[in-house]
Amino acid sequence: MDWIFWLIVALIGLFLIGGGILAYRGRRGIEAPVEPEAIEPAPAPGAEAEATTVEADVEVVGVEEPAAPAREEIEAPQSRFARLRRRLSGSQNALARALADLLSVDRIDSDVWDDFEATLIASDLGVGPTTELTEALRKQLAVEGVADPEAARKVLRAELLKLVDPTLDRSLNLASGDDDPAVVLVVGVNGTGKTTTVGKLARVLVAEGKSVVLGAADTFRAAAAEQLSTWGERVGVPTVRGPEGADPASVAFDAVSRGAGERADVVLVDTAGRLHTKVGLMDELGKVKRVVEKRATVNEVLLVLDATTGQNGMMQARIFSEVVDVTGIVLTKLDGSAKGGIVVQVQRELGVPVKLIGLGEGVDDLAPFDPEGFVAGILGE
Ligand SMILES: Nc1nc2c(ncn2[C@@H]2O[C@H](COP(=O)(O)OP(=O)(O)OP(=O)(O)O)[C@@H](O)[C@H]2O)c(=O)[nH]1
């Protein structure tokens, strides 16, 4: 009977070992990290040909992963703009000075008007708006006079506001399709503050709870992609970039594909803006837009202009607007410019509103443009 006893012991042993293995495997199954499903964005109809060329053109070498998702509190838009207002009302502001001078004289004779006009032109208001403003003020102040500076100031405020045009829609169009992200192309000459603007804008959007992907399509300068990746890490969003000298359209396409694959809300694409030749620029930016549009709709083309460059900036604005359909202007470095008049001139010439302004090098120094606040700043209020 011994053998029956030993058989029972062996069976119990086997049962216990088998059960242990099963229990261990079961636990591992729950604890094992779930592999993310690879999402391959489906090419848009008709996109295959150019997308294939694009992929053959260049290999996108890296997708910089963000260090950690950042969802910090950022300064409210109104208070960001209030800082600009304070900076504008500083004494270096030519427009503010001209207006203050006008209000301080007892009698406005033709010399005073001539000086006034010259200062307005020097502040980049443009000849047309300068003439309009002077004419309107001459008419109204001839009736009401400047004896009552408060009343005169009111006239000035109203006329300036008319020039800046509070009726324009300055909101960013970030309406995305069901599956596609909203795409914003940021264009402009290098050095105007494009990359910085993309970074600051990403920060604002992330703080609003939006998911963002950055595209470093400024492949001309390796440092530009590096700079954008740094912003991406800082803000906690991925940056899609290619090797130095890669086809910008390819990088832009990949960034938008990645955004679509991840169901991101917005893809911000930083482009290179070398004004080597108008044709070259047209080819480059035209191709970026065309290729991106095979994957998703381009919602906004934001032109970044450096307010300190005055008439040179206006020339750039004209060229870019001929090359690509600009939908909004970002005026940077208004903090360091005595030439706030460029807001009026550039809107007039391009027929496109200033939507955002850069007012410093800090991470929160980008604000939505507010016409009333801007005019108040110019008037030193
Ligand atoms: N004062 C001030 N400086 C700014 C503002 N916006 C950008 N800058 C500075 O302008 C310089 C150029 O900015 P970038 O963002 O590198 O310009 P970019 O157009 O991308 O040029 P590349 O980097 O050459 O492609 C940087 O030193 C920024 O910090 C602003 O609103 N005010």
UniProtKB/TrEMBL annotation:
Entry's Pfam families? SRP54 (PF00448), SRP54_N (PF02881)
| Gene3D superfamilies assigned to the protein according to its UniProt record, in alphabetical order | P-loop containing nucleotide triphosphate hydrolases, Signal recognition particle SRP54, nucleotide-binding domain
Its membrane topology is listed as: Peripheral membrane protein
Per UniProt, the keywords (alphabetical) are: Cell membrane, Cytoplasm, GTP-binding, Hydrolase, Membrane, Nucleotide-binding, Receptor, Transmembrane, Transmembrane helix
Q: Which reaction does it catalyse?
A: GTP + H2O = GDP + phosphate + H(+)
Q: One GO term of the cellular component aspect?
A: plasma membrane
Tell me the domain of life: Bacteria
Q: Where are the transmembrane segments?
A: 6-24
Q: Biological process (GO) annotations?
A: SRP-dependent cotranslational protein targeting to membrane
Role played: Involved in targeting and insertion of nascent membrane proteins into the cytoplasmic membrane. Acts as a receptor for the complex formed by the signal recognition particle (SRP) and the ribosome-nascent chain (RNC).
Database matches in HAMAP family: FtsY (MF_00920)
Q: Which PANTHER family match?
A: SIGNAL RECOGNITION PARTICLE RECEPTOR SUBUNIT ALPHA
Assembly and partners?
Answer: Part of the signal recognition particle protein translocation system, which is composed of SRP and FtsY.
What is this protein's name?
Answer: Signal recognition particle receptor FtsY
Cite the source lineage: Bacteria, Bacillati, Actinomycetota, Actinomycetes, Propionibacteriales
- Gene for this protein? ftsY
